[in-house]
Every structure is written in C-alpha cells, then in structure tokens.
Amino acid sequence: MNFQDLSPMQVVLVCSVIVVLGGVIVYLLQKRHTERLRNRFGETEYEQTMTERGDRRHGEALLDERSKRVESFKLRTLSATDRARFLNLWEQVQAHFVDAPSGAVMEADQLLGDVMAARGYPVGDFEQRAADVSVDHPEVIQNYRAAHAIALSHAGGQASTEDLRRAMIHYRALFEDLVRDQQRDHEVIATEQRAWRKAG
Hints:
Blueprint: H1 8-53, H2 56-71, H3 80-99, H4 101-119, H5 126-136, H6 138-155, H7 161-179, H8 186-199
Helix pairs in contact: 1-2, 1-6, 2-5, 3-4, 4-7, 5-6, 6-7
C-alpha cells in the first residue's frame, strides 16, 4: 500500500503518529542530554546554572559551551616534581594562616591559580576560571566559589577569622582535587572528552 491509496482520515492518522513519535524521540534525546549534564557537572552546579540562566534551554547551552571550551585546552596531570613543589607551598600557606590569616587566604587563592595554570587551564578572571574548572571538578567547585566569596567579604572588612578559616578549608578541597595523584592521565581525559562529544 502506498501513501496515495490512503483515505484522508488515514493520512491524518499516519501524520499524527509520525508527529507523536517524533515528539517522543526529541523528548527522550533531551532527557538523556540533561542526565548527561547533571552527571558531568553535579546536581548543585547544574541547578545553579539553570537558576542563573532562567531556564533549562539556556542553562544547558551554557554548560555545553563550557564543556567545548575545556575540551580545547591541553590539560595535563602534574609531574611528580610539580606536585611535590605545590604540596610544599600549600603547607607553607597553611603555616602562615596561624600568624596572618588574611595573607594566607590571599596566598591560597594565588597558589590555586598557579596550580590551574600548571594543569593547563588558562589564566582569566575568577568567574571564567571557576566555570572552566567546574567541567572536570564539579564536586569541589562550590568550595572554590565559597572561598572566593569569603575573600571578597574580607577585602570589604566583613569577614571574621573563622570565616577565613572556612575559606582555607574550601580552598584546600579544590587544591587537593587538582594536585593529588590522578587515577586518569591526560590521555584518559582526552578519551572521555571524545566520548562526550560523540554522545552530545
């Protein structure tokens, strides 16, 4: 039976089925894409981005842009020498906190920037750095944002020593995530990024 043999009612029915099936396919693809983004960025970062952008379509487009931007970086794991150097510097920063909490917080922020640069992240303003790091370190990016907010409050004279202590704890969470021995090297990261592009 070809399409011309169908009655007008049958044509309408076939077209309706095609439209419904198309809608179901689009819905399932969108749902899978959303789940992939939630898994990659974590629930908190995903929801925060949706709230900031006002709707899911714009929020997910932003997360996709972040992913593509980071895929273009030549990210690398730290050499054993660099890792040891950064760990030593972190110990010094922590020791400074006892006598100079505000100075130590500023040093911690600078040290994190140095670690990011050594890993291959471009140096930029805070928001861009946080967005870039959120792609591969979503579980600790909120710590980085919280620490930065405390540092800004301190610059305005509104942070206590206890606030600065919390900032150091937040900075340490991201520092350890960036510096510790990675179970995956840059080749594995590249493989995951290729899989992400293919799935997207």
